Amino acid sequence: MKTIDELVSEGVAGQRVFVRADLNVPLAGDTITDDGRIRAAVPTIQKLAKAGARVVVASHLGRPGGAPDPQFSLAPVAARLGELLDAEVTFASDTVGDSAKATVAALGDGEVTLLENLRFNAGETSKDDAERAAFATELAALADAYVGDGFGAVHRKHASVYDLPAKLPHAAGGLIVTEVGVLKQLTDDVKRPYAVVLGGAKVSDKLAVIERLLEKADRILIGGGMAYTFLKAQGHDVGNSLLQEDQVPAVQGYLERARERGVEFVLPVDVLAADGFPDLKTKAPADPVTVPATAIPAGLEGLDIGPESRKLYAAKLADAATVFWNGPMGVFEHPDFAGGTRALAEALAESSALTVVGGGDSAAAVRTLGFADDAFGHISTGGGASLEYLEGKTLPGLAALED
User: Fold this and answer.
1) Which one of the listed residues 340, 360, 383, 397 is annotated catalytic?
2) 16, 37, 119, 216: the active-site residue
């Protein structure tokens, strides 16, 4: 695929360049609580602006359902993007309407505008090819070229991601080039030992990637809510812990295949448990107790990996040359159950391996816990996109950028 560097070298001064970014940041009212995705979009936007392009940035935010919804407005993002660029970013109050047309028409060379949330238009996410294509045609009228840089959305067959590139000269932005380059190091050119850490709530969300990683990884460490389905599959009592009973047979099959392939599965040996899920609003003390992972008492719910598990996981990562991590080790949003995720992040931050944090909750967790982005080799901007890439799926947004 053509890259932004090639596009810029051909000359973009005076051209309207549509940048599909991923600015889907968490908001508390109008306050952005994690601007990581905005910061990740800045280099591509800056490169185009410095080359004299008239930059039209677009993104989705949340799931507004195909109609305008003020709580999902990108207006706060426009303000933050302007701060990071140290330049004015004008804001269009619609996607392809009068405001968008006027705002884009008013752009001068090197100037930047941001369109309102693409998902305010039903055509963006429509499963009807014609409706999606019609919206893409309206977007194409605003630009002379297209740069795809929203890695977190490339696994979606959406108008601005999949249909629009076919209507304009197109190139991959710097973020997508970086993301794909890192993911290739996790699939095609892996330095070993290769350790994978998977957490989060549900086993069902990770089954496809586990299947693929059984062919690639040397060891797989399991934490978070999904660990209890693995423990149950081994015949252990998990108390009131999160459990996907219907996935137990599949997990037993994966454990058996791992033994056959020589892939080491590492499960918690102890957990922090409480008699109920903690209050994440008040952060009231939850009085956790440490119990064996293989015998969680009835009435208790496992909510984080315990101190011995943290030591075990750090030891299992110590000699790794490559580490991929997706999913927190516990309910990191509550201080009583953040220790496992923090310990894992510390182990990766101290590692000399290529350490890749797979976006989504993992990226939010390390930032919430105070870790700098440069403490890790790479923090992906796309949790779901990263997993689907590792699963071996064709991602629509990447396929659309191929020449």
Assistant:
1) 360
2) 37
